[in-house]
Amino acid sequence: MNKKSPILIAFLGLVILTMLVTACAPAATPTAAAAPTQAVQAPAATDTVAAPAATDTVAAPTVAPTVAPTTPATVAPTVAPTIPAAVCAPLPNPPTVKAGDLGSSGNPIVITFVPSGDSGKIATAGNAIADCLGKMTGLSFKIEVGTSFGASIEAMGANKAQVGFLNTFSVLLAEQKYQIIPALASLRNYTTNAIDPDKALAGQIEPFYRGEFIASVSSGIKTIADLKSKTFCFVDPNSTSGYIVPHIVLAANGINPDKDFKATQNAGSHNNVAIAVYKGDCDAGSAYIDILTDPSANLKATYPDIAQKVAPFYDTDRIPNDGVQYVKTLDPKIQAIISDGLVAMGNDPGGQAVLKSLYTIAGFQKIDTHFYDAFAAILKKAGVDPATLVK
């Protein structure tokens, strides 16, 4: 037998002793990690987690967890503000109509709305107005949204509609052509833009508004003179702030739209004008203040950066607001109770919410038939006489 060196034997003994001490020592306690600042979603209850396959030898984890998992805090969902329902209480002394008469269930009164914005939104708000008026007056109503501004005028002229929500210039045309009766003027929280001389009136209830010229920021258009040789979008030939007044402004600045623009188009609504300029279909356009930020149009929901890529560069003079009109053959008692009902809606938070979703109307004021005369005189002085435009 070979003899081993005493030193070697001692060294091997020391190694074995060290291994035994290490194996018998308790596992080190890990330092707890900081809780994450963002909750991590737990796996769905239906998910099945497979167990690890069995092996001859299962290795023990190097470090045993000592900190219990943190339960994420429950965050309450954001609750949208509640819009109250319109109060449509019956009005005193409602007119009585016989079966088959105008206002009966078989022969409803028709309300026409000009398509100055999104037709679907206008129809939804219009139906809510008709329903509320029905509860207030005991009369039956139905609505239509004109395919154009002129279509709503003609519907009243042919007595296919007896109540109109016409824009300002359409009122003047309908007065001249069909002797319709202006009865209410819309009141609005005055909307403004950065270049409006009336910006101090922002948010106040007013019976007037202004039009604006808007352009793509990248177009370099800063003045009316810069519009020459550009493409331009109007709203509709009967639109006050989107066609009539802009033509007056252009003429006063020596621009003939038929000769000095590269191309023009009628977009059909104020919304469409802003969208066309945003998309580059037109370099510039005309609409009401401020189509880019108006809550009723709500263009930023679809085009979040529209107010950064499109900007106003010119504002028109004041324009009297649109309103509500009646055909001359409608029973005065029915006219009166419809006006009372609409005024009541404007004084009720729920009713006002409906009116705001229509044309951002905050209420109504009763007017006489001369309300628009001063504005008509301004147009006539500028060479735009509604009497000469009717056929």
What portion of residues belong to β-strands? 15-25%
CATH fourth-tier homologous superfamily of the domain at 109-190 and 321-389 = Periplasmic binding protein-like II
How many strands, what sense, and barrel or not for the largest sheet? 7 strands, mixed
CATH level 3 topology of the domain at 109-190 and 321-389: D-Maltodextrin-Binding Protein, domain 2
Description:
By secondary structure, the chain is of the alpha/beta class. Among the domains are: 109-190 and 321-389, D-Maltodextrin-Binding Protein, domain 2 (3-Layer(aba) Sandwich), CATH 3.40.190.10; 208-320, Periplasmic binding protein-like II (D-Maltodextrin-Binding Protein, domain 2). 33% of the residues lie in helices and 17% in strands. Strands 1, 2, 3, 4, 5, 11 and 12 form a seven-stranded mixed sheet that branches. Strands 8-7-9-6-10 form a five-stranded mixed sheet, sandwiched between helices. The longest helix has 19 residues, at 6-24. The relative contact order is 0.15. Mean pLDDT is 84; it is low at 1-65.
